[in-house]
Specification:
The protein is α+β, with helices and mostly antiparallel strands and about 80 residues long. It contains two helices and four strands; from the N terminus they run E-H-E-E-H-E. A hairpin with a 4-residue loop joins strand 2 and strand 3.
Length: about 80
Amino acid sequence: MTLYMDVHENLPEGTTAADVAGAHAQDLLVQTKYGVDYRAYWVDETNGKAWCLVEAPDPESAAAVHREAHGLVADRLFPVVQGR
């Protein structure tokens, strides 16, 4: 499986960190159906952005989780390698 960072560049106006936490909780309920593991997320409320670290078999599976869980599909998705 590949590790990806997905980028949500334009969250709906007024989206809060609590809203993103709720969306992440929904991802966790759906992810096993697609063989995906959403590991962590970060939110920039001021600029309406969020990032998700996800392990997935392919980008389509990662997007399918977001689509089914809450509809907020990432604008971009990059394969990444974790460093220390």
